[in-house]
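Write out the 3D structure for:
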Amino acid sequence: MYIWADDNKPKPNDKKRPKLAADPVFIVLLALHIGAVVSWMGGAVLFTSVVMPSLAKMSPPSRTEFIQSALPRYIRFSAGSAILAVVAGIALFGYITQVNTTNQPSAQGFPIVASGAIVGLIVLIIALGIMVPSGRKFVQLTKQPPGQDEMPKIASLQKRMGMASRVGVALLGIALILMVIGASV
């Protein structure tokens, strides 16, 4: 995380701790990665614990209006934060393993961090492969006049999105735990 500043190397009789200079590239990549992960997880937890249960209790006109106004924004936010989290994580990993060797995970921590990264990629696949397409289709169906054919499709999409969001939140929690443990070992 820190590198020795050239002009502050410890001297043999110096009882003071040397000043440490932060690696700015590492700090920026780490901040981007953590910020995007917090956004992604926060949005996913909010969607799973508040939005989906609330949709079931809304009247059909209120539900339709909410879905058409809020869900497209949520989909963009969720997809954007998920992609940024993964891209920043890959850039951070590449930087610490190729350029800044002082911040590499230990031999014991590396497989744990790698496992967390794999779990994170699985959640990204779930988000982009299930949640985003289902959400877009869900919004499209609510824009059509209600008919008997659409109701089962809407219910199925809502169920699929609820299941994918619960699995995604659980896996994001596991990825977070693995990353924290791997980075601190």
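Residues 60-98 form the longest helix (39 residues).
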